[in-house]
Amino acid sequence: MAGSEAAWQAAQAGCPVVIHEMRPQQGTFAHQTGNLAEMVCSNSFRSDDSEQNAVGLLHWEMRQAGGIIMQTADEYRLPAGGALAVDRDPFAEAVTARLHAHPLIEVESGEITALPEDGQWIIATGPLTSAGLGAAIATETGADALAFFDAIAPIVYADSIDMDQAWMQSRYDKGETEEEQKAYLNCPMTKEQYEAFIDALLASDKTEFHEGETAGYFDGCLPIEVMAERGRETLRHGPMKPVGLTNAHKPEEKAYAVVQLRRDNKLGTLYNIVGFQTKMKYGAQTEVLRMIPGLQDARFARLGGIHRNTFINSPRLLDDRMRLKSRPNIRFAGQITGVEGYVESAAMGLLAGRMAAAEIAGRDLPPPPPETALGALVTHITGGADAKTFQPMNVNFGLFPPVDGLKGGRRGRKDRYKAYTDRAKALWSDWLATQEVERA
């Protein structure tokens, strides 16, 4: 995702680009194709609200910058109740086709296993950096790469879901159209069913880690078993919360917990179980997940899985132009830098691509203001975070400098978020306009 965006931005600035992609010759645990920008975990780019949500603001900034990821996502979007979800396979195929068709972009197949000595390079290897390149990075930086584990949610065939028990509704009927307001499929649970589900979840067979590996999960992508181990009610206050939903079959009954599924392709034949990343072994997954009312006869297009996610200590290793301090001809972008999520990863690619192209053209491109979404992210990973405790981070308003004169707390949140996004949009537009003037 980040490499695709970086290549596009650099090429659009007039810089010839070569993309080195090891797939399909060298596969990974999570990828299924050789397409660029393949989505492996979820098909959602999360909230598209650019006035009240930091990730929605990031969408807006990337659209203003002509980002290929956002352009293509908009073309292949699916109803998702206010979120930006896409038809994942056509999305990746379209990004791949556009990059191949660009006159200044060349795509070469094959694995890179050493840090290049010459030329301008961007390493955007994502969460599944190959062992060879990972070892080269560790050797150069003098420290082992940090790592946590990402878990993948299962995908269910729609025609195997019992719609006599499940119903279609977005939480709080969110969305401007009926299709948006019914973008999620809901499976209700009674207290007894929930308790039995938790018991089975805790007792299930789970993936074992190799010797020397530890599971330092990112809190935004916790496996459901890890959440359940933190307390029996944790899931009911997380992905299984029953609020904002009314059972269409039994409107008078309040569900104790609700499992939501979101459409995973345009045809509506596949649904992924929202927030249900899991490290259960395959046999245990089918047994436990079929305890969910409505999924008792579920057939799975893909079961969940778990994979190692490697990232570098960016606050210590990178400068504010995203260059490796020890080798300034190399930039890093994407999830390997310690941002979390598709959008954040692509955003760092957008920034790295523009910065590299500017440097090649003899110009210095400073990072965007920290009051913008991209600026807040890059400021965080290149120095705003404490290097000793650095962990992956989603974009959020906690990374933004405060707006003077606004009250804190939940009561003033709506006005505060609007002030953040208004300020960011103005500053981002100015940052982009300055580059256009310099290019001219």
From TrEMBL:
> Reaction catalysed by this chain?
uridine(54) in tRNA + (6R)-5,10-methylene-5,6,7,8-tetrahydrofolate + NADH + H(+) = 5-methyluridine(54) in tRNA + (6S)-5,6,7,8-tetrahydrofolate + NAD(+); uridine(54) in tRNA + (6R)-5,10-methylene-5,6,7,8-tetrahydrofolate + NADPH + H(+) = 5-methyluridine(54) in tRNA + (6S)-5,6,7,8-tetrahydrofolate + NADP(+)
Task: Tell me the cofactors it needs.
Answer: FAD
Which InterPro entries does the UniProt entry name for this protein? FAD/NAD-bd_sf, MnmG-rel, MnmG-rel_CS, MnmG_N, TrmFO
NCBIfam families recorded: gid_trmFO, PRK05335.1
Q: Which family does it belong to?
A: Belongs to the MnmG family. TrmFO subfamily.
Task: Give a short account of what the protein does.
Answer: NAD-binding protein involved in the addition of a carboxymethylaminomethyl (cmnm) group at the wobble position (U34) of certain tRNAs, forming tRNA-cmnm(5)s(2)U34. Catalyzes the folate-dependent formation of 5-methyl-uridine at position 54 (M-5-U54) in all tRNAs.
Localization in the cell: Cytoplasm
Give the matching Gene3D superfamilies.
FAD/NAD(P)-binding domain
Q: Name one GO cellular component term.
A: cytosol
The alphabetized list of GO BP terms reads: tRNA methylation; tRNA wobble uridine modification
Name of the protein: Methylenetetrahydrofolate--tRNA-(uracil-5-)-methyltransferase TrmFO
Which species? Pseudooceanicola algae
Coiled-coil stretches = none
Which is one GO molecular function term here?
flavin adenine dinucleotide binding
Membrane spanning stretches: none
Q: Which superkingdom, per the lineage?
A: Bacteria
Q: What is its EC number?
A: 2.1.1.74
Q: Which residues form the MnmG N-terminal domain?
A: 2-363
- Identify the keywords attached in UniProt to this record, alphabetized: Cytoplasm, FAD, Flavoprotein, Methyltransferase, NAD, NADP, Transferase, tRNA processing
